[in-house]
Amino acid sequence: MKTFNVPVIYRSPLITAIKNSRKQLDRMKKDFTPTVLDFGPLKVLLARHFGFCFGVENAIEIAFRTLDENPDKRIFLLSEMIHNPHVNNDLLARGVQFIMDTAGKQLVPWESLNPEDIVIIPAFGTTLEIEAKLTSLGIAPLQYNTTCPFVERVWNKAEQIGQQSYTVIVHGKPGHEETRATFSHSTSSTPTVVVKDMAEAQLLATFITGEKPAAEFYELFKGQYSPGFDVVKDLQRVGVVNQTTMLATETQAIADYIRNVMMDRYALTAATAGEHFADARDTLCYATNDNQSAVTGLLQEEADLAIVVGGYNSSNTSHLVELCEERLPTFFISSDEKLVSANEVEHWDFHHKQELHSFTFLPQKEQVTIMLTSGASCPDALVEAVIRKLLSFYGLEHKIEELAAKFK
Ligand code: SF4
C-alpha cells in the first residue's frame, strides 16, 4: 500500500517497528492475535491492527503539504479534517480555519471567502451542495480534496445501484459528515434514506411491508430521506450501503434483515432476491474491518481491562469501544494525559456523551493485563505515550528501551 509523508510528531518508531514485525510474519493479514508486551507486573496486549488508516494519512499529507506550499494564503478546512483533536489542533495552530463544526454549524460565513482562499475537503468528503457553494464563490471545490477513496467507493456503489433503479438505504449516523456527504451524492442519482441502526432498519421495514401507514414515514424519518421520497414506490427495490466506519456485524445484520424482509414481501427465492434487493454489502472500508477484527482477536484473550485511544467524536473508535465493553471494563481516552495516576482516569462515555472520572482503574494484583488499541485517526505516538504512562505507574519506564531493542 502507498506510504505517506506524515509529520514525524504523529509517528512512533517503536509502534512502527512492532507493526512491521507483525506484517513480515503475516503478509496476508490472517492472524488477528495481539502482540504481547510482557513487562512483568504489567502485560499489554496490543491489537494486531490499529491507528492511522490510508485515508487519514492521505488527508494529513495533503493538508500539511498545502500549508507548506501556501504560506501566504488563507487556508480553510470545511470541517474537522479527521476526528482526532490532536491533529485538528495542530492544523488550527498553523492558522487553518474550520468553516463548519462537525455538526454542520457554520463557523466562518461563506461570504467572507474569496477566490484566492484555499478550501480543503476533509477525508469524509462533502456534499454536492457545498461543492456548488464553493464554485459559486469562485473556489475550485476539488483542488484540495482529501476525500478518502474508500468513501468515494461507497458513493460509486450507491450510484451504481441507483442506476439500476434501486433506492439506497444508507446505514450511517445521520449527522456524521461522511453520511451527509454519501446521502447527498446518492440522492443525486436515486431516492435515498438513512437508518442509523437495526431499530431504525426494523422501523423502515414496517413501511416496506405496509404494516405502518405511509404518512407516518415522513415524520419518523424526518431529515433522513431525499426530497420527493415516495414511501410506497421507493421502497419496492432497495440496496444497503454504509458509512465506512460502522460496526461490521451490525451493517451485515441490517443488510441481511432488509434482504429477508424484501424476500418475504415479494415471495422471492435466493435466486430471485435481486429483483427487489441489490447486494451491496461490501462498503465498509478495509481499516474498519481490520481494526474490528483485531479487537475480536484481542477479546479471545484474558485481560483485566481495555484501553481504547482516539478522538471522542470518532465513529470508528467508538465502535472499538463498543466491542470491548461487551467483555470487560473499557476506558476510552483521547491521550495518555487522561491516565492521571494508577488510581485515576478520565474517560469518555460515548453512550451519554460525557467525560467520566474513575478512581478504580488498575486492579491490585501480581500481573495486570491490559488490552490496548486505537482508532483509525489516532497517531501511533499517542499509543506509545499510553504504554509509557502505564509503565510509569509501575516504575518500569526503562522497560520501553528493552522493548524497542527487541523490535529493532
Ligand atoms: S476509516 Fe476507512 S474510509 Fe475512513 S478515512 Fe480511513 S480508510 Fe478511509
Automatic annotation (TrEMBL):
The EC number(s) this enzyme carries: 1.17.7.4
Ranges in coiled-coil conformation: none
Top-rank taxon, per record: Bacteria
Enzyme class: oxidoreductase
Keywords assigned: 4Fe-4S, Iron, Iron-sulfur, Metal-binding, Oxidoreductase
Pathway connected to this protein: Isoprenoid biosynthesis; dimethylallyl diphosphate biosynthesis; dimethylallyl diphosphate from (2E)-4-hydroxy-3-methylbutenyl diphosphate: step 1/1; Isoprenoid biosynthesis; isopentenyl diphosphate biosynthesis via DXP pathway; isopentenyl diphosphate from 1-deoxy-D-xylulose 5-phosphate: step 6/6
A molecular-function term among this protein's GO annotations: 4 iron, 4 sulfur cluster binding
CDD domains reported for this sequence: lytB_ispH
The protein's name in its UniProt record: 4-hydroxy-3-methylbut-2-enyl diphosphate reductase
Species in which this protein is naturally found: Chitinophaga oryziterrae
Lineage: Bacteria, Pseudomonadati, Bacteroidota, Chitinophagia, Chitinophagales
